[in-house]
Amino acid sequence: MDLLGAVRSWFDNASGNPQSRWARVVPLLVLHLGCLGILWVGWSPIAVGAAIGLYALRAFFVTAFYHRYFSHRTYRTSRVAQAVFGVLGNTAVQRGPLWWAAHHRAHHRHTDQPGDPHSPRLRGLWWSHVGWLTSPDNYPTDVAQVRDLARFPELRWLDRFDTLVPLLYGLSLFAVGEALRDHGTSGPQMLVWGFFVSTTILFHVTSLVNSGAHRVGRRRYVTGDDSRNSFWIALLTLGEGWHNNHHHYPGAVRQGFYWWEIDVTWYVLRLLALTGMIWDLHPVPARAREARGAAA
């Protein structure tokens, strides 16, 4: 294993693609082991509240920006807002916006078929949940999948140095915790709860769409894949659990096709549209919503 090359790749994606799986496993281990810090730093209402709030906020950044904007372009925005969306999404520590969108587009192009980077049908539940991230084949950004986004140098830069924003995010949490020492928390406590615990939970909930939403739930539409709708996954992911709906018509900004299908991301995007920050939200066509034929 080229240790120096692996370390460089963690901070600069253009430095090369380490062929050892351990180059990708180590960052995941560090993220999870960081959660054990709660044994030393303890807890406080502020720290736990920050973990919950930052989980929900960054879950929205992933679903609304990385998924529904960068991956599917289901609404439009300005170039400045697009760059801001990329930075906010990067705080979730799920790589850069081009990398995320490229892999997701490949998933839709080859869902549950060869070429799908994380299909549980092809390689099992564990692979679809986390194993695919450790493969050197899935490390680079396939620019061919995201030529519409790669023409923006600011997005390419953010994708290349996708560790910088998470590092600044973690340092900011530490600084806030130190500033709030008189209120019952600390820098280390805010770092552990607001960064490691919150980010790890968000990682597994996001991965649950790749794994669980292709195994658990009901199928309203015939899609040629294993995508399913799950109320519980939708609650955890702010609307991404209506996965069969999404695979049936991925171009829609909303994934809960009916009023009773809770889609928090859609509700917030509607509010953002009222401010003029985003526009041209793509609806679900009636013909697509009313199509039927799948077994439950």
Question: Can you offer a commentary on this structure?
Answer:
The chain is mainly α. The chain has one domain. Helices cover 56% and strands 1% of the residues. The protein contains 16 helices and two strands. The chain has helices at residues 3-11, 22-33, 38-41, 45-71, 79-90, 97-109, 120-123, 125-129, 147-150, 153-160, 164-179, 187-211, 231-236, 243-248, 264-275, 286-289, and strands at 76-77, 278-279. A two-stranded antiparallel ribbon has the order 1-2. The protein is globular and about 55 Å long. The termini are far apart. The mean pLDDT is 94.
Strand content: under 5%
Helix content: 55-70%
Mean pLDDT: 94
What is the number of independent domains?
1
Distance between the termini: 48 Å
- Class by SSE composition: mainly alpha
Query: Could you give the count of β-strands?
Result: 2
Largest sheet entry: 2 strands, antiparallel
Number of helices: 16
> Strands of the biggest beta sheet: in what spatial order?
1-2
Low-confidence runs: none
Q: Which structural traits does this protein have?
A:
single chain, 296 residues, mainly alpha, two-stranded antiparallel sheet, 2 strands, globular
